[in-house]
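name: query_chain
kind: protein
chains: 1
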Amino acid sequence: MQNGGTLTTSGNTIIGLLAGSTGTVLVTGNGSVLDTSGIAIGSAGNGSLTISNGATVNADTPVVIANSPGSIGNLNIGAAPGDAPVAPGTLNVLSSVAAISFGAGTGAVNFNHTSSDYLFGGVIAGPCEVNVLSGVTALTGANSYTGGPPSRVPMPCWSSLRTRTSVRQAGL
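structure:
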């Protein structure tokens, strides 16, 4: 979805539904909007959602990443890892419990953007990696995520910090 395109669905958006499947969704460009009841990224397969260049994704329930054992899910704000950073997009989740939750698979939230003051207020919960690859990102939610390899910097989830990156978490 790009250049002002809009998709509204009363159902869930599932990216990488079945084991062995791969799904990729890109929402990019000012005015581009995905409105959905819920989002699963890597439900049982491999899934990736990238929100960039001023686009918006709205969900009524928490975004679930890497729900099943063996699944892989990535939420990219800006660009995917390995790609050149671009302007970030926005994820809005109505749930008061968590904006993003992780299941039994392997999941990550990747911030790879060009902003010098990006605020991410959604609560991140569960075992995951939070990777700040480019840009300045402030995590302002009451996060409760855990996990990651011991070579990462704890915050309390292990986070990969590269370039001129600043990461702040409320309550620290």
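note: The chain has one domain: 6-169.
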